[in-house]
Amino acid sequence: MNIEPKIEIRSDEDTIGQFIVEPLEQGMGNTLGNALRRLLLSGIEGAAVTSICIHKKDPSDKECPYIEHEFKPIPGVKEDVTDLMLNLRNMYVKLADNVESGVIRIDVQGKGEVTGDRTECSEGVEVVNKDVYLCFITDEDAEFKIDMTVERGKGYRLPEKQLEHHVPDKIGIIPMASVFSPIVKVGYSVDPCRVGQNTNFERLVIDITTNGTVKASDALRSACEQLIVMFTMIGSCAGQLNIAGLQFGPMDKAASKEQMLDRSVETLQFSHRTKNCLARENIKTVRELTKYSESELLKIKSFGKVSLDEVKLKLEELGFEIKK
Description:
alpha+beta; DNA polymerase, domain 1; 3 domains; four-stranded antiparallel beta sheet; 9 helices; 27% helix; flat
């Protein structure tokens, strides 16, 4: 019996979503549920604070106008730098599609609680949970001023890894441990499902909880797209695939070098940052990409060493290299 499964969106709100897929062949529920859960938890792109710079109140201290490291107290503030950084991890931020990084600033004075609604964001940056608690100013004359760098990424990044992602190496810049994933929790269950008199089918129920920066349905769609790309790449190595009328197959070894050079960079599966940087520079084909040298690529806005290594590796796989 060949029955096409259907999906029902039971709920899709700002932070929670429930999706039901049925009927599925026996065993497919756990196969799909586990793959989607793992990818949702680690493979969905988000944004987070990657570094902070806390200003000292005394502007006369020309040698060190910033708090130097995370083990220092903050004058006039209940929390020290470490506690503040832990609180900042609970502040959920969102970047516009055309923005790769931004800045959030807090500049307040006087005794009281500092929450997310006291933030000032650069263009394309948004704090979603405005009520998040950040710190408490204990002195009426105290001033609290902090600049936070927000970047796009996936999964989790340790503070020492931030230096590889455009964090300036100067006194006062404190790198943070960043959780980029917008997915808070994913759960799935597999239940028996009946079709007519046949009870050998399954129902897959997926529950997704996000931090509010992305809708559950958008996260599920992104996870499915990534799985489709990966499975198509793997399957095409074994032979010709026919998916929804489209043909996929292993690359013809006899294909000319000219055809390879005319291949669109959109098909190279670059990261979001690298893809946007190349698009801004109007680099559309492999041929155009090979005309750039390392120094020329690094001059592109937001294009750093990580993006450069990604481009070099991808070109090497295709048998090309960037300009010497």
